[in-house]
């Protein structure tokens, strides 16, 4: 369930964009299993922004010093908090590749106080919640992160949450629809996020 049933901007195909944007779309397809995802086809409507955002996004996703598992815990949590089903579903797939079990993915929806997290994982979830709610990581949470992560990793965590908060806003507002075979909230978390429950109650 997207926040919108129809896209506000229809994704462009590779034949509808200029040569430089075609190359960006091909690079995105190569990174994501060979197909052009709806997010990339949508952002291709603004080629200059897409080009510069892609460089930053690739840094966060492919060159982070955070472990893939820790990165995906943060990304899935911010996707849940923002009720961005497209982001959640894509990163369920990526999270599984990074070693997250289906039970752990469901537990991300429960947040940092759920049983089963390591102290670092709970701190990553709590930091994500705090950044979402207050744009600030508390001293206590920062101390937990700094006890196990490097300075670079702590900085990258903030930028990872910020990047995917931004992406969530774009996905929700532009009405980007889930790609084929991308799972949704109910299938993988067993429920909808509170924001969507409130909207449909």
Word description of this protein:
The chain is mostly helical and 201 residues long. The chain contains 11 helices and no strands. The protein has helices spanning 19-31, 38-43, 47-62, 68-81, 85-97, 102-108, 119-134, 139-148, 151-174, 185-189, 194-200. It is globular, with a radius of gyration of 17 Å.
Helicity, in percent?
Answer: 55-70%
**What's the count of strands?**
0
Task: Enumerate how many helices there are, as a single number.
Answer: 11
Strand content: under 5%
Report the C-alpha radius of gyration, rounded: 17 Å
Largest sheet: none
Distance between the termini: 15 Å
Overall average pLDDT? 94
* H-E order: HHHHHHHHHHH
> Any low-confidence stretches, pLDDT <50, length ≥5?
none
Q: Give the overall silhouette.
A: globular
Query: Which class of secondary structure composition applies to the elements?
Result: mainly alpha
Summarize the helices and strands and which ones pair or pack.
Blueprint: H1 19-31, H2 38-43, H3 47-62, H4 68-81, H5 85-97, H6 102-108, H7 119-134, H8 139-148, H9 151-174, H10 185-189, H11 194-200
Helix pairs in contact: 4-5, 4-7, 4-9, 7-8, 7-9
In short:
By secondary structure, this protein is mainly alpha-helical.
Task: Spell out the key features of this protein.
globular; 201 residues; mainly alpha
């Amino acid at each position: 369930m997207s926040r919108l049933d129809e896209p506000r901007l229809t994704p462009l195909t590779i034949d509808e964009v200029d040569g430089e944007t075609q190359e960006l779309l091909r690079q995105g397809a190569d990174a994501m299993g060979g197909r052009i995802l709806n997010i990339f086809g949508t952002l291709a409507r603004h080629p200059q922004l897409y080009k510069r955002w892609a460089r930053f996004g690739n840094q966060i996703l492919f060159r982070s010093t955070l472990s893939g598992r820790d990165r995906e815990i943060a990304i899935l949590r911010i996707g849940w908090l923002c009720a961005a089903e497209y982001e959640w579903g894509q990163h369920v797939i990526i999270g599984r590749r990074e070693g997250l079990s289906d039970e752990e993915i469901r537990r991300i929806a429960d947040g940092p106080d759920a049983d089963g997290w390591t102290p670092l994982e709970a701190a990553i979830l709590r930091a994500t919640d705090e950044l979402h709610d207050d744009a600030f990581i508390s001293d206590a949470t920062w101390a937990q992160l700094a006890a196990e992560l490097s300075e670079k990793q702590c900085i990258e965590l903030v930028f990872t949450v910020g990047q995917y908060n931004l992406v969530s806003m774009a996905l929700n507002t532009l009405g980007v629809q889930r790609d084929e075979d991308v799972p949704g909230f109910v299938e993988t978390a067993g429920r909808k996020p509170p924001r969507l429950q409130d909207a449909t109650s």
